[in-house]
From TrEMBL, chain A:
<feature type="transmembrane region" description="Helical">
    <location>
        <begin position="357"/>
        <end position="377"/>
    </location>
</feature>
<feature type="transmembrane region" description="Helical">
    <location>
        <begin position="316"/>
        <end position="345"/>
    </location>
</feature>
<dbReference type="Pfam" id="PF12704">
    <property type="entry name" value="MacB_PCD"/>
</dbReference>
<protein>
    <submittedName>
        <fullName>Putative ABC transport system permease protein</fullName>
    </submittedName>
</protein>
<comment type="similarity">
    <text>Belongs to the ABC-4 integral membrane protein family.</text>
</comment>
<keyword id="KW-0472">Membrane</keyword>
<dbReference type="InterPro" id="IPR025857">
    <property type="entry name" value="MacB_PCD"/>
</dbReference>
<keyword id="KW-1003">Cell membrane</keyword>
<dbReference type="InterPro" id="IPR050250">
    <property type="entry name" value="Macrolide_Exporter_MacB"/>
</dbReference>
From TrEMBL, chain B:
<keyword id="KW-0067">ATP-binding</keyword>
<dbReference type="InterPro" id="IPR017871">
    <property type="entry name" value="ABC_transporter-like_CS"/>
</dbReference>
<dbReference type="GO" id="GO:0005524">
    <property type="term" value="F:ATP binding"/>
</dbReference>
<dbReference type="GO" id="GO:0005886">
    <property type="term" value="C:plasma membrane"/>
</dbReference>
<dbReference type="InterPro" id="IPR017911">
    <property type="entry name" value="MacB-like_ATP-bd"/>
</dbReference>
<keyword id="KW-0813">Transport</keyword>
<keyword id="KW-0547">Nucleotide-binding</keyword>
<dbReference type="InterPro" id="IPR003593">
    <property type="entry name" value="AAA+_ATPase"/>
</dbReference>
<feature type="domain" description="ABC transporter">
    <location>
        <begin position="2"/>
        <end position="220"/>
    </location>
</feature>
Amino acid sequence: MRRYEAFSMALEALRVNRMRSLLTMLGVIIGVLSVVILVSIGTGAKNAVESEIAGLGSNIILVVPGRLTTGAAPTQSRLNLQDVAHVRRVVGDPAKVTVSLQSGETVRVGRTEQFATIVGTDENLPNIFERPLERGRYLSETDVDTRRRVTVLGAEVADKLFGDIDPIGRQVSISGARFRVVGVYATVGATFGVARDAEVHMPVTTAQRLLGISRINGMAVGASGPDEIEPLQGRVLAALQERHPGDQFSAVTQTQLLGTIGSILGMLTGVLAAIAGISLLVGGVGVSNIMLVSVRERTREIGLRKALGARQRDILLQFLIEAVLLTTIGGTIGIALGVGGSLLIQALTPVPAAITWWSIALAFGVSVAVGVFFGVAPARRAGRLDPVIALRAE
Amino acid sequence: MIEAVDLTRSYQLEGVSVEALRGVNLTIGPGEFAAIVGPSGSGKSTLMHLLGCLDRPTSGSLRIDGVEVAGLNDTQMAELRNRTIGFVFQSFHLLARTSALENVALPLVYRGISRNERIKRAKAALEAVGLAHRLDHRPSQMSGGEQQRVAIARALVGEPAVLLADEPTGNLDTRNGAEVMRILDGLDCTRIVVTHEPEVAAHAVRQIHVRDGLIELDTAT
């Protein structure tokens, strides 16, 4: 028997039992669909986070007190502005070091209130981070030195407090103190769930006085190139250890963040795909079950085919192709629905979904494999039937 | 054509050995028309399965068209059935959702013959049994007599040396049964009919009576 004869026989058998074939396929369709969609969402989330990190700026080292490992308790910061001055000397280029002191406060204009993250920083912030201005100016060295009550608003805060009015030169009230708005940042979006558009920046010195503290939360160092990052990391850490013997400090780079977060999200995507793969497996069991039913139902037909000269492998091939057709047709439908679903999710929800070719190829390959794997046992049973017994079957 | 020497076949039924055939010696020549008759349980079905290469003997020798059946593997048996033997069953055994033409062409599929050639031969076989007007009909759209004639066309399409008919008129009325037997009468290959109806057996030139797994009477000897 030629290969395509077995193929057309199998197709005919599926066509005859249209409803049953479709329902059997449904298991595979749902399995493949979920693999494609979940992998798309996982990959989309990873891409989004990676572009967020890349959007921060380039060659940045974030320096914070304590150990930056999962499970470590947050550490009370002992860093202060003298440490920053020391790090500036170590780095060599003072303009490439900036500071950060954060606190949540309510910002008020007239009767309008907005909760915002107050960030005390300095004039070097734009040298290190990508933080374009919408209007006005950045904080200046003089602002920091003289503890001026000036502020640069995040896009969202400016919009909530002032709406269509130009905030430059206007007053806002933070913790009872009056501040003059000197700049508004352009929209940058969120990084790690931190809404950077909801920040309100002021000179770090002003923030320290406002909050009544002398510490800072951390600093950021900009390296001049990718090769500079690692030596700089070591030098900065060594300098801080020297000033605070016995304290732990961490210096993380974007690459390290990308690596950590990428591997976490990659793992998440893998777990999602595995869960979806389980439903594909269940679909395969359904195929196996239906093929066994089909073999039993068509025992007389198998007996007759054997009497007419069908060999074991002719029968085996016919049923195996039937099973593989079930799963590949189901897989193809599942891929089409999965791609459609991912595009729909992308269009209708804020969830980023990125369709990857490997997930489609994998889903298709797995469908074929599931067909072969779960089809082989029923097909062998069909092929091995004794023609005498099969012909007598009811 | 067919040469059986000391043929036995026993089955294990729940640990007990049952001897269905207990030493059958039989020679059927080319073109002969023989009837195997006997009561149920006599072993005539077992004999037919052996002659049809659907089963292997427990001991003894069986040569069909010069080939020793006992030494064949499954694939060789299937090929022997395909080329040498045509089957006609009591319950027709046609594929339900398949046209008469496709049903008749089925043995040729397993012989690896091209589709066009299959259709041509199947058409000729259906014409030979007077069903040229029923090519595209499904079994459910035909009478019992017509269905059995389709089955005969299917048995003959591969030009087998031996035609084996197991109770071919068992599910038919008298008129259709007579029509089927008339077709068998007109063939010139070796024909073996298994039946318990004396009228059917009377069509055959030679009567072989089987009882208790042995040939009790053979009109040829």
